[in-house]
UniProtKB/TrEMBL annotation, chains A, B:
Alphabetical list of InterPro entries matching this protein: Bact_HTH_transcr_reg, Chorismate_lyase_/UTRA_dom_sf, Tscrpt_reg_HTH_GntR, UTRA, WH-like_DNA-bd_sf, WH_DNA-bd_sf
Record-linked CDD domains: WHTH_GntR (cd07377)
Domain HTH gntR-type, chain residue ranges per copy: 23-91
PROSITE patterns assigned to the protein according to its UniProt record, in alphabetical order: HTH_GNTR
Lineage, opening ranks: Bacteria, Pseudomonadati, Pseudomonadota, Betaproteobacteria, Burkholderiales
Protein name from the UniProt record: GntR family transcriptional regulator
Amino acid sequence: MDLTESQTPIQAPVRREQTAAFSPLYQQIRQLLLQALEKGEWKPGEMIPSEFDLARRFHVSQGTVRKAIDELAGEHILIRRQGKGTFVATHREPVVRFRFLRLAPSDGETVPADSEILWCRKVRANAEAAAALELKSGDGLIYIRRLLSFRGQPTVVDDIYLPASLFRGLTMAVLTENTGPLYGLLEARFGVSMVRADERLRAVAAPEDIAELMKIERHKPLLRVDRVSYTYGDRAVELRYGHYLTDQYFYRNTLM
Amino acid sequence: MDLTESQTPIQAPVRREQTAAFSPLYQQIRQLLLQALEKGEWKPGEMIPSEFDLARRFHVSQGTVRKAIDELAGEHILIRRQGKGTFVATHREPVVRFRFLRLAPSDGETVPADSEILWCRKVRANAEAAAALELKSGDGLIYIRRLLSFRGQPTVVDDIYLPASLFRGLTMAVLTENTGPLYGLLEARFGVSMVRADERLRAVAAPEDIAELMKIERHKPLLRVDRVSYTYGDRAVELRYGHYLTDQYFYRNTLM
DNA sequence: TAGTGGTCTAGACCACGGA
DNA sequence: CCGTGGTCTAGACCACTAG
C-alpha cells in the first residue's frame, strides 16, 4: 500500500528542545495516521498496513506505531482484530451504529429501525446552524427530515442539517435507495466519516407537526436531542435535532 | 506501604496452557490492584506505590504494571500525575463530579449546585429496587430525597436508594452536615467508591409532588433519569431516580 | 537532586485467523 | 504454515514536581 511512495516521513524524529511545546513521537504518528485517513488513503472497512510496515514508513519502532494506533482504536476510529489486522471503523457495522443511536426498548427485545425520509431540501444556514457548523450565515445546507419507526410505532423524528458543500449530489433519491444507516451512506458516498458527536438533551412538549407525525397528542413530553457531529480533526459536519418518543424506549448512557 | 508484608504474589507468572481461558499478566495485576482498592489499602485521594515498587511486589516488570495502571486510569479509577505519582480517584474533586452530574446551563455560566436534603428514611426494597441492586425483596434500603437548585431555581429532584447494609449510620444529620458531593461522603465515610453508572433517560410529565417542589405546573415535561451506580467489581450499590427541569439546563453527552 | 510518571527502543515469544 | 496483533521484558532517557 504505497510504502515506497514519497510521503512526508518524520525525518529525524523531532525532539523539541526542552520546555518547548513537547509532542511525543507517537502523537506525531497519530496525527500522520489521521491525515492519511482524512485523505482517504484507507477507506472505512479497509485494512491499514501492519504495525511493522507503518513503523518502517514513519521511521520509528513498532511499539511507537502501536501506541498511536492504541489511541485511535480507543477513539473507535480504527478497529484492531487480532490475527487479521487493523481496520478503519465503518458505520455500516451494527456495533458502531448502536454507539450513535442510543434508544433501547424498555422491554428487552431489540428491534431494527424502519426509516422513512420525509423530505430533503436545500436551505440557507441561520445564525445557529452557522455557528454550530462553523459556516457563515446563509451558506447552503441540505435539510433532511426523517421518521424512524420501531414495530410500526413512529418513535423518532430527526431534522438533519448538512453543509451542502460537502455533500453535493445528496438527494431524496439517493437517500431513499439507501438501506443502511445514514452515516454509512455519508462515509461511503461522500467520504465523510462521523467520529464523534456532542449531544444536548432536554424534555420538551411535542410540537404540533411532530405530534402529528408520531400520531400522539400535542404537548406530550418528548426527549429532544440536539446533536453536532464531527469528523476527523474535530470538524463539525452535521447538526441534528431529534425528537424521541420515550414511552416504550429510553436513551441509554454510561457514566465513567 | 506494606511492600514486605505477606501478600499473595503471583508466584510463577501464570502462563495458562494453550487454548485455555487466557488472561494476560497485566490483567491479573489489574485485578490485584482492584482487590487492594476494594480492601481499602489505598483510600480515595491517596497515592499508590510507584510503578517500580508495584513491579517488585507483584514480580513482574514495570511495563506490565504500567499497562495495568493504564487501564485503571482509563476507567478513571486511578489518576496519574506526572512527576508526583498515581492516585486513587475521589469524588471530592470537581472534575470527577462533572462526570456524574451532566447538567450544564444553556447560557454559558457554570454554577454551583445548592443541595437540600428533604428526607432520609429506612424502607424495604420492592421488586424493582431489589433486582437493580442485586438484593432480595424486603431488604433494608435507605431512601433519600433531595432537591438541587441552581441560582435559587429548584432544578433537580433525586430519589436515592442505598442498601442499608452498606451505609449503616447514614442519617439525615450526617447528610445535612456534609457540604461536598454525596458520592464524596459515601466514599470517605463508608468506603464505597462509585466507579461507573448506567443511566436511562426519558421525557415524562411532572408528577404532582415534584411539580410542587420545583414550583412548576403539573405535567410540565421533565427529563427523568434512572441511574444504577456501581463500585469496584461491577457491584450495584445505588439506585436513583432523578427528575430534571431542562428549561435553563440540558443534559450533555458525548458519543464516541 | 531525587523520585515519579512518560517515551522509545529492540527483541522474544504467544494467540489468533486464514491459507 | 505464515502474517497479523498482543504480551512481556530490560534498559535508556526525558519531563515534571518538589524539597
